[in-house]
Write a structure and sequence with these properties.
This protein has about 375 residues and is an alpha+beta fold. The protein has 15 helices and eight strands. The chain is about 45% helix and about 10% strand. Helix 4 packs antiparallel against helix 5 (about 125-145), helix 4 runs antiparallel to helix 14 (about 345-355) and helix 5 packs antiparallel against helix 6 (about 170-190). The protein is globular.
């Protein structure tokens, strides 16, 4: 005898811990199997791109912190990089090295949240506590250099706000010396856990062809075997001076998307150590007028953020405020394939699949 079931709709979120913010997915279910998924963002939309039109170029910087608030330094960098391109500003060498140091620390902080939150998503709360324990060391470093922990507003057009304070380099080296032991803990506690592996391996596989077709980027793209990282493919700042590898997967499942972030943290630590060793003396700000007023024109610049490629498009009409600012947000773009990723999987798998993308809603909704 064959039993027929009737499809029904289930709202996952927006008020749900495993949606990683105020995000809603309208699931069409056949029993517990997902037939269709409609992602519905917008609950955190604050109009940052529109607000930028009524702020000076420098006043826009604190708003970028609120995009991917787990990697505020990288958001700062992505925006000022575009304005510098618009103005043809040359950034001093020391400032570029400092940007790399704090940018890679931000990448590690973001990946620590992704790792811990993902462990919690699939039932391992202890992993969440361990990663946040170690993230506190990075937050302490950010507080030393910028005065803030989560929203640093540290970058400036032409450089950075302040030079490295006394004690920062020593504290940073202490963290780098300790971090390999922390990675070993994560691998023992999360990566090697049989239940975690059963929940993530061979789940929601994305082929390399589909990842490219959908414009995916960051660890989500590289887990599918596509070796593309802007720091290597189109080096900006001083990334071409460092020896590091780009971790690449082969299967493109949930497990590899998770594991690549651990490997990337290892490479970020390697970059930071080299940057500290090579850190030159000199100014931290380029020649930029006190009142920033670019000539009419437009510019687009990209950086490799923790979630993927962050692009910033800036249009100037010759005034002190940008005429238009638009952000290419990797979390938003990476969500574009979520419907296909969820089809055919169970409700419990849907949590593991969404978590493997590593979204942050401040960036999705802008």
């Amino acid at each position: 005898m064959t039993f027929k079931t009737e499809e029904f709709l289930l709202n996952l979120g927006p008020q749900h811990p495993s949606t990683h913010g105020v995000f809603r997915i309208l699931l069409t279910l056949d029993g517990e199997t997902v037939v269709k998924a409609v992602p519905i963002p917008g609950y955190l939309h604050r109009g940052i791109e529109k607000i930028a039109e009524s702020r000076t170029y420098t006043q826009v910087i604190p708003y970028t912190d609120r995009l991917d608030y787990l990697a505020g330094m990288l958001m700062n960098w992505g925006y000022v990089h575009a304005v510098e391109k618009l103005m043809n500003v040359e950034v001093p060498e020391r400032a570029e090295y400092i940007r790399v140091i704090v940018g890679e620390l931000a990448r590690m902080a973001s990946h620590l949240v992704a790792t811990g939150a993902y462990a919690a998503d699939v039932g391992g709360l202890t992993g969440f506590i361990y990663t946040f324990r170690d993230r506190e060391d990075i937050m302490d470093l950010f507080e030393m250099i910028s005065g803030a922990r989560l929203t640093p507003s540290y970058m400036r057009v032409g450089g950075v706000a302040d030079d490295i304070p006394d004690g920062f380099i020593d504290k940073c080296r202490q963290f780098l010396d300790y971090f390999p032991a922390a990675l070993d803990e994560y691998n023992g506690l999360i990566t090697g856990n049989e239940i975690f592996q059963a929940r993530t391996q061979n789940v929601a596989i994305i082929s390399a062809e589909k990842a490219i077709e959908m414009s995916l980027s960051g660890p989500v793209l590289r887990a599918s075997g596509v070796n593309y990282d802007l720091r290597k493919a189109r080096p900006y700042s001083v990334y071409d001076r460092f020896d590091f590898e780009v971790p690449v997967g082969s299967k493109g499942d949930c497990f590899e998307r998770y594991y690549l972030r651990l490997l990337e943290m290892e490479q970020s630590a390697k970059i930071i150590r080299q940057a500290l060793d090579q850190l030159p003396e000199g100014p931290i700000k380029g020649k930029v007028p006190k009142v920033i007023k670019p000539a009419a024109g437009e510019a687009y610049a990209e950086i490799e953020s923790s979630k993927g490629i962050m692009g910033t498009y800036v249009v100037s009409d010759g005034s002190t405020n940008p005429y238009r600012v638009h952000f290419r947000r990797p979390s938003f773009v990476n969500l574009g394939y979520l419907d296909e990723m969820l089809k055919g999987w169970k409700i419990a798998d849907a949590i593991a699949i969404l978590g493997s993308i590593d979204i942050v809603l401040g960036e999705v909704d802008a």
